[in-house]
Amino acid sequence: MPEHLLSRVEHCYQKAEVFFKQSFVRPEVSFKLRGQKAGVAHLTENKLRFNPQLYRENREDFLKQTVPHEVAHLIAHQLFGLRIQPHGEEWQLIMRGVYELAPNRCHSYNVQRRTVNRYIYRCSCPQGEFPFSAQRHTMVSKGRRYFCRRCKVTLSFTGEQRIE
User: Fold this and answer.
1) Which biological process annotations from GO are given for this protein (predicted)?
2) Is 11 one of the annotated binding-site residues?
3) Which of the residues are catalytic?
4) Most buried in the list 77, 99, 135, 138, measured by CB within 10 Å?
């Protein structure tokens, strides 16, 4: 776990404690997040998860924006409870008032999308091509049937595969 990230989490909590004049329970912090999300706050578990790849690739902005963004979710939860909107006015108050940051909902980091294998199925329609995921293709091999909504014919595997 990078020390810079942990110290930034602590710094964010200290700023919130000064601003609200109360103490907050520190969260468990994990670096076990993959995919497109930079960070996730688990409110009822008081846990933060961060994406190590996006942290490495966007370190400066990650520490400046992403960490306070996620900490603000936990602070808002501890102050206002579960019935608030995730990016509602309470969370925005914390982002603006405590951290003096724009309350942006999403990051703009360049995220590599993973390639997926598609299995091509067809019906009797002229343009009736259906790319199936591996999971759906497996369901067909176990006996599940899928039908075209237009011609009502059972979709059948062409033997073709495509990487997207």
Assistant:
1) response to stress
2) no
3) 70
4) 99
